[in-house]
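Sanity check

After download, print the first record. It should look like this:
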Amino acid sequence: MKLLKVSGVLFLSSSLLFACSNTEKESSTEKVKETKNTSAEALKGVTGEYRQYAIGEIEEFVKATEAFTTAVKSGDIEKAKELYGTSRMHYERAEPIAEVFGDLDPKIDAREGDVPEADWTGYHRIEKGLWVDKTTKGYEQYADQLMKDVNLLRAKVDTVEVTPELLITGAVDLLNEVSTSKVTGEEDRYSHTDLYDFAANVEGAEKIYQLLNPALKKKDAELSKDIQSKFTNVYNLLNKHKTDSGYKSYTDLSEAEVKELSQAIDALAEPLSQIGIVTEAS
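Expected structure tokens:
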């Protein structure tokens, strides 16, 4: 009988311990869920702000493209050249959203060789006409198509769901694009207006950083400070190549200056790639 009583006590004790353990696990799980939910709520406002920023840039892109295509169709080659670099900056800033539409991005922004010759349209097609063929004749059809595609982009952009993940990958992708195509001079190979695209990509990445920075500071203040310092360094280098009307031709930069820009971008991309910690539970 005593043995049975002792066994009963041990069974009851182990049951209580097991129950307590489960309660603690459930409590811990609830806290993690609560933290994640709080983090998601905090970032919801950020994604909404970025959405408005990107839509604003696309709206400006529509206006700038209208002025650019009008110059092309009216045969004003000098005006078209003048507007080319600045017009594209709006698109480059908002690329994380603009590139969501995989059918429209190549129509607007494909370089020669990116798509079959028969399908090649958009800004870079007209760029070749302006700087290589030195004419607008025969390019009116490309101007009309470009305007249609840009208007369609504006109509579609309202449907994009902006998530914290899109922002985080978008910021890093913008800098990767700089280091893979802008720094090499491949992007604007006829006009050599690469620094306009370069600057716009950096500005787009910085906008995302600024929106996420309040949350980032709480997670890692040193990382936040490091990223800001690296952005400042990139801008200081870009400012050296500014002119009264915009930026120098990319061909005017020395090999050392190109290398300096490339290294500054790589130095910024490394800490910026860690910005995803803002979505992690504390």
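If your output differs, re-run the checksum step. Summary of this record's structure: The mean pLDDT is 87.
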